[in-house]
Amino acid sequence: MTDRSPTAGGPTAGGERAPRSGGADMPAAVARRRRVVAAAVAGAGVVGLVYLAGHDPHDPGVAMPRCPIRHLTGLDCPACGTLRATHSLLHARWATAARDNGFVLACAPLLGGLLARQARAVAAGRHAPVPPRVAYGLGAAALAWMALRNLPFWPA
Which residues cross the membrane (predicted)? Predict the structure, then answer.
């Protein structure tokens, strides 16, 4: 019978498996690679926030990425306005952030929690998939938000 306790993951000295912490174990090399990628993504996020803090996306002359959905369809996607909202939050302009993208602002605690959960999983060398109910619920809410914000009577 195999030990299925949360700490049983197999040997790591030979580089075979990372310790098991409540999720599926993975090869140590894969776990290490995931930690490196996670650190690089976090670093890029910090660089992006620093740039965004100093450059106002409300100003059309500032270099910011364009939304591909809006460019192709003319419709606002669920994330349209997130850069503007984040800039407003970095400057403590809460009402402006809510106007820019209220959906992302309302989802921020959930998204932050999911990000922290994933970061802990990566640090522990395990998988932490988003629970299906959360994923489908968030997807349905995003689609509803997209439909609502593109109605003709919705305030711009």
Answer: 36-54
In this predicted model, what pLDDT tens digit does every residue of 41-68 receive, in sequence order?
A: 889 989 989 998 999 998 888 888 888 9
Residues spanned by the domain of 139 = 28-149
pLDDT digits (tens, 9 = 90+) for 12-26: 444 444 444 445 567
DSSP state of 43: H
Burial class (CB in 10 A: 0-12, 13-18, 19+), 14: exposed
Contact 149, 50 (CB under 8 A): no
Q: Which two tokens stand for residue 22?
A: 């409540």
Q: Are 76 and 113 in contact (CB under 8 A)?
A: no
Domain count, the chain: 1
- Is 156 a member of any domain? no
In a domain? residue 13: no
pTM: 0.68
> Of 19, 21, 23, nearest to 11 (Cα)?
19
Q: Does 64 reside within a domain?
A: yes
